[in-house]
Amino acid sequence: MKTIITGLLPEEISAELALPQKYRGKQIFKWIHSGALSFDEMTDLPVKLREELAENTMLFSSGISREVIDSDGTAKVTLKLYDGHFVEAVLLEDERGRKTACISSQAGCAMGCTFCRTGTMGLIRNLDPGEIVEQYILLSNKYGKISNIVFMGMGEPLANLENVRKSIEIFHHPEGPHIGLRKITISTCGLVEGIDDLVQHGPLVKLAVSLVSADEETRERIMPVTLKNSLDHLKRALKRYQEKTNRRFTLEYVLLGGINDRRIDAEKVRHFIGNLKAVVNVIPWNPAEGLPYKEPGEETTAAFTERLEELRVPVTRRYRRGRGINGACGQLAVFENSTDPSDSGR
Ligand code: SAH
Ligand code: SF4
Known about the structure:
By secondary structure, the chain is an alpha/beta fold.
């Protein structure tokens, strides 16, 4: 496989394509991030160079193979990677018209959370930086300017940190999308080593953690990552992150009917938070076929949220978007051999 150039910085593009003039890499980088779909469109490059590049180099490694738009406007695209695997990316738009790209960091995921559809796929492979960046480019070319990025699609970003880091460098680059680090969120299931790596080496983006349960035993059962990353260790890593950034983070709490939705579960969340600055995002579980859970029900969700509020825990409830198209959180999965057309990227 040749290097994917959408995952390169300007100077790396010059080197990779062996361009005689160094500044050409910057020109190409700018074009890639201002909507060019082919080398032919890069009008400030000499015609001969454009022709050569068009002949020998692929601009994009992935392509959109499927697009579904939900009645609420949420769009989910399935991308076909160069080797035939598929990943998904979702575009969300809020009431003010601000667009957020929810992107994938891996094809599948190795973490095995039992309530998550992506978890049931296992890990296929890590995405290359260019494959991460292309999700953003393809979404913005299609739907217009995107202001925020969340790594909440398929995969565990901290298990592919080097490539995620490189993609963020590109997202943040002034000649590229130039997105502020506060507008980029990494969501993790709680890999302590990865959080510490961010503390030490950056980038200090916003952090969201899928807590889901603050009870050690329950969490071990539904999120096996807890076996090597106990709640106590996780909390200490979060403290270090907060000391460094002084920024509040989000704890995502997927509410599973009858599993983590009692008053005592809310109290354990309060205890876990202690003096950390955090907001809890309560997400009623989105049904995923074949997974042994049930939705919590409106009343239970309200009661759980109220209990947290009584305990003075800041809470938000995630809007449920894209449910009609399996584009909501934790519903992203592409089953490549599935016979259900809504599961397949083809
Ligand atoms: N691997 C990262 C990011 C991807 S998962 C992580 O776990 O944080 C994105 C979010 O979807 C996580 O908060 C996860 O807890 C949530 N999620 C997973 N399955 C879900 C489901 N079936 N219903 C609702 N949310 C789910
Ligand atoms: Fe992976 Fe996140 Fe799903 Fe867990 S919740 S299986 S870490 S994608």
